[in-house]
TrEMBL record, chains A, B, C, D, E, F, G, H, I, J:
Similarity annotation: Belongs to the cyanase family.
Annotated protein name in UniProt: Cyanate hydratase
Recorded catalytic activity of this chain's protein: cyanate + hydrogencarbonate + 3 H(+) = NH4(+) + 2 CO2
Enzymatic class: lyase
Xref: Pfam families: Cyanate_lyase, CYNS_N
Domain Cyanate lyase C-terminal: 75-147
EC number: 4.2.1.104
Function, in words: Catalyzes the reaction of cyanate with bicarbonate to produce ammonia and carbon dioxide.
Active site (record annotation): R88, E91, S114
Database matches in PANTHER family: CYANATE HYDRATASE
Length: 147, 147, 147, 147, 147, 147, 147, 147, 147, 147
């Protein structure tokens, strides 16, 4: 059994039980964003979190153990994603990537926005012209140092 | 002359004149995010905006004309970006792409977040543990329709 | 079980029962274009549509559930398709892509033709020189906005 | 000088003279779709057409000659296009490619829609919910033959 | 079961029964070239042809049905083939591709040689310096049309 | 100067002088197929052939020398060709590659058709249904040997 | 069963029986170089050779038949090999490839070293500074011909 | 000026002066194999060797300096070489790569054949069936060590 | 069974038994770095080491044999790794690769740092600003030789 | 002028002036590792550092300005490096990448070694069996956080 198989089990049970990610997140005790990433095989759970997930989805012990092992991360089957929803984010990097770079460097100097010390929040933004998806990302700025 | 050459001219002049993107944005009369993307060759300017940019950077008339022509978009030299700052955004899609997909579909059903009817805002978020980069993205949700 | 497996089941049953896509579309109550894409794993069905499809193809309940979950879209095994029929469409983009771009921008300004708020119709066009395939695509124009 | 250079000359002059593709098409005496593709380096002009184009854009004789030579076709810099407008067409093939295949085979049997004996028409489709891009493609069906 | 599985069954039985493609072609009633391509999963058989093949190779009914369904074509595992025999044909295109283009355009004008309305014949050409492979390809010329 | 530049010079002069490949082949004293490949930079000329070509196209001495140096072969800009005429040949390998393999091995055993000890002939094949391109290839069979 | 499965069987048995390739080669009656390539799925065996191999490794009849069928050649999982030993050979081509080309053309004129009419010998070369691997390759020179 | 430009200068002069690599190697005082690789930009020359080469090809001082700087190695424009002569070596690795691996490991254990402490010799091998290219490679075996 | 399967077995057992790599290394009698690489399928074990590993993880005899066979090395599923931890090392090569090259050549001349006669040590480096990962690599310098 | 051009200028002058990186580092006042990376276009200099570099290499003012602008990082021309010295580092990741991952996670939990808050030191390690390259890397451990 591999982490990938655990992800499969969870998704099958989630559909059968008609659970929502936000409900699962409450059980886990973390945000819906982190919980979804974790159960899709991208994050590592504590023993306590894994036990809750195991109980919720009736997972075997081996699966509960695997949830506590750091996974090989990367959730997409191709370097350029084919799914239209995910592709739009890739397109944003293609179009705005150099803009991100210029503005962050202008504000902070040489360095990066951490993708590790990072959190995000995804909300529906009501709008009479059609509701909008609002995503707020927050990552620590890490400066390059000279030595 | 091509749009790419206009971008080069603007960058050279920006460095020589020690201008900041936020200052340029004030001249153009748009946000710093849109203005940066536009002057890096990703957006189309109106005649009025192009004239202001032409005056600021002392561009030839041909360049001012090109700023008003829709460009072939895409600002990165490789499908997987090598620059560490830009790569971190690519990594976020690799790690969180399926999470974006699950949560947007849970909230909105089948469809995408538009990368066209889209805006973003990039701010410094002061933090005693080290300042953070905060990016808020807002894109209209576009549902798939049956027919 | 995954959506891909549901697609396999449907195709096997469709061949065994000698059903046509246009007949299936009548059962589903949508156009043959949308119905075909949906049953090939690219669109999400409502509970009612999924139930009809499940009855028609004698699918297990898990499969009927999966038809109602938004799929990871993308129906081709390679970035450049090898199948001659599908490749011709890729070739049209290779040869006419910049033409699409110029003419849409000339008519509408900067923006895109939506691939989400989109429909299409495929018909036989009788012709004494040999019948023709006629495809009409209609997608909403989405303008880039300044902010 | 190469065909690519002729395309560059035409685009520079078109911008400077503020000509529209539909106006140029009238001079050439063909549809705006074919004319745009031809002047973007994808089609071969007759001596008469090339002479008209040469006069309109003040091209040197060598360029007028090159317009009459069959070009190496393919107008995009990457296998998967980065420009959002053109990408949407690529996405349609990714999502609907197998649908095109199924429906054309259902109607016509094994074979392809010609991308050579092909024409297309691009129109604005007024719509109170937002105008739409309407593209009609017509290609001869070519059946595979046994031998 | 998929077409690929039918191809596998046929190849296993062909080896066990020590049949030659030319013998199989006689049973099918077509050339050895078309028959081989068809049974390797690239062409569509009529009900009558499929029945003959089913009888010869003792195929189950599902397989006989699949032989009559248009397959997803493309018989090679990689874009650049690794098998030396097949690679030599790829090399011919790499070295002679622009020659094919120049000579066909010189003789016929702009257009292509059809790969659909196409037939070929492969023969041994006795030669005292070592026998030669002789391949004759014949494809209809399809001219690009203006519109 | 490189061989590529010599090819450019020849093509420019050929267009300006309105010469046909068959006429050039007569000057060189070889077939039109070999001559075209050679002048497109794929074959090596003898001193005598190079001198004739140099005289015909008024090439500088350095270019005449370069025609006698073995070139780095490969005439296409991408691994999968984008030009529709050349792509059709690539498609033939994709669809018929395993057929070539099976039939050559059936006739000759394990080995290849040489792409070096190779010649070809390209002709117009008149046909009331539309003229056809006929290509005959002849390559020496080279058997694998045990040792 | 496929050739690949036969290779797997042979490797498993070879490990279990602690046989060396040189011992197996003696049974087959060919060099250790050819025998290894053949049993790794790259060469075709005669009925007699296949029978000996079948007896040595206790293969089923279907496997013995498959050893006599020409395989789809190519033994590596990626275009650029990851295994350090095999990569060094790839590196030699990357660094010395143009040297091979220059020196063979200087000695023989335009043509290639055959990879079909080819043999090789691999030996340990004792050396006080550390033993060396010595590989001697011999391939027939095949000249390009004019026609 | 870069090393690549120095290589270009040397090749142009070599053609103009009709020098052979073996003659140049005598001037340099090394083997023809090493000398060719070095002057094609893959090896580093001593001051003395560079001076001799500079004198022979009338190179400017900057070029003579560059010959003494370690170059960025790799002499081929694509990962899979298109030139038929060089491709045959790539094919040998594709077909025989796992054979190299098995036989070297059988003889030496885990480790590699060095591509650095390496030399080669390329000779014409007269043969009544057609002369052969004979290449002898000798590389030090480097064992993996435990620690 | 293949080496890959042995790696899987070991990882499953390691998780179930809650063993640490450093504990396993003590059993094997080598460093934790070499032991981890070896049990992840990259190194070859002696009979004695394999027996200890087999006992510790209760492996079948076939697995113990496979641990003693030189594996096909390369532990990552894609050329550019998607896992963030491993990607950072790839990024270091992308950013510092030419620096490594310059400094090693400045100190040692032309040659490489061996990746075979190589060892490494990975330690936690306590630091009040946050602990650090400290990796020391030591590889023999191998000079290119002239011949 | 671009940063790439500044790098070129510096390298040309460094060769002409026969300067060593360690000497340049003393002028800049940083380690030789950081200085080399910076002058090869990967790091951003302060105004003071840039002025010193400008004086040392006689750079124009525009170049001195560019040294202070954050560059688009990534110093290699291909995703898999062809240069043997740099490739060995890529090979280490291919072979030891999963080992790095396991051992860092065992010691620190889920997270990464920073490639930004990072320093390295490269030294010659004298050894009677042949001197060794010793590289010590130190990067801050960054833990993934839940939220």
């Amino acid at each position: 059994m591999k982490r990938y198989d655990v992800t499969e089990m969870i998704i099958e049970k989630k559909i059968a039980k008609k659970l929502k990610w936000s409900q699962i997140a409450e059980v886990v005790g973390q945000s819906k964003e982190w919980t979804t990433a974790a159960l899709l095989g991208q994050m590592t759970l504590t023993a306590e979190q894994a036990a809750k997930v195991g109980a919720l989805f009736e997972l075997p012990e081996e699966a509960v153990n695997l949830l506590q092992v750091v996974p090989y991360k990367g959730s997409l089957p191709t370097a350029v994603p084919t799914d239209p929803l995910i592709y739009r984010f890739y397109e944003l990097i293609s179009v705005y990537g150099t803009t991100f770079k210029e503005l962050i460097h202008e504000e902070f100097g040489d360095g990066i926005m951490s993708a590790i010390d990072f959190k995000m929040d995804l909300q529906r933004e009501p709008n009479p012209m059609g509701d909008r998806v609002s995503i707020t990302m927050s990552g620590k700025f890490l400066p390059y140092k000279t030595y």
